[in-house]
Amino acid sequence: MKTTISRRTLLAGAFATPAILTFPRGAQAATNLTLGHNAAPGNPRSIATERFAELVKERSNGNISVRVAGSEQLGNEQSLLTSLRTGAVSMTVNSQGSTSALIPELAALGLPFLFEDSAAAFKVLDGPIGEELEQRFAKVQMVPLGWWDNGIRHITNSKRPVAKPADLKGLKIRTPPDPMTIDIFQALGAGTEQISFGELYIALQQGVVDGQENPLTNIASSKLFEVNKFISLSGHKWESSPFLMSQITWTRLSAADREIIKAAAKESGDLQRKLFAENEAKFNAQFRADPKLAVNEVDKPAFREASSKVVDTWRAKPFGDFVDKLVKAAKV
């Protein structure tokens, strides 16, 4: 009996054989992930994300690789969050302000003078308040991997020292797209402008805005002190940097790979918090010693009084019960 082999049969066999050879018994396909953020090289956020990538590679025996892209290489924070929700980007360490566009309650962590320092903030975030916030991320297709530090924030500008709220009158201050920060500075009497962090240096240099607010670490790593010589230690609010993974990416990982990611996120997060605290102390001393800079303390009672109505404004929001719980937890 004559056997006839059709062209279709030959093609099917040709493509089937490599498929069998590609995945020998026990082999595991490599997983390639991307992690985007906006921090400059040398910033604790940048250093910690690189360490995260190293840990994941080591503990997965090279089966998981993480490409870290900082300095807004993959877009600004708003676009990174969109990419995260679609799975185009695997992870991001984003700012509290940008992320609050999706989780409005998150912005409440920045209530004026709510936390004296980062340690007090993490004591609250590492408890029930943090757990409640984490549950909200599932609704926006994100998995929180940890809370990183974005510090107690201070004011810089190119015009004059800011010692009392009245000194802000007539100044245009850049803020992130964060309703809390905008509310605070409007209550203090300043004008506000929302500009991407990656464009901030040039905006200050060209006089598009007079000043901005950030922790000393960010002021140093992005060299904002070069264009803003007046540094006023207002300590007006604290912010977190949520470390987030795309839910789409998360669901594609095996249980074992998820444990590797979580453990690496915890270790690199601890490193980021440690480096951030060290940098804040270092740059405080460094800026004070620099004769080209003017560093001053502010009248904190006056700032507290001028911004106190912001708390009432946020208590009146639909999630006012969360604000009440947060304020209560911060006082414990």
| Global mean pLDDT | 92
Looking at the overall shape, the CATH architecture is 3-Layer(aba) Sandwich
Distance between the termini: 89 Å
Low-confidence stretches: 1-27
- If strands are numbered along the chain, what order do they take across the biggest sheet? 7-6-8-5-9-11
CATH superfamily name? Bacterial extracellular solute-binding protein, family 7
Oligomer: single chain
User: What Rg do the Cα atoms give?
Assistant: 24 Å
Binned, the helix content reads 40-55%
- Number of DSSP strand runs: 11
- How many domains make up the 3D coordinates? 1
Cα shape: globular
Explain this structure to me?
- This protein is α/β, with parallel strands linked by helices.
- It has a single domain, classed as D-Maltodextrin-Binding Protein, domain 2 (3-Layer(aba) Sandwich).
- The chain is built from 14 helices and eleven strands.
- The protein has a six-stranded mixed β-sheet with strand order 7-6-8-5-9-11. A five-stranded mixed β-sheet has the order 2-1-3-10-4.
- Helix 2 packs antiparallel against helix 11.
- The protein is globular, with a radius of gyration of 24 Å.
- The chain starts with 6 loop residues before the first helix and ends with a helix.
- The N terminus is likely disordered.
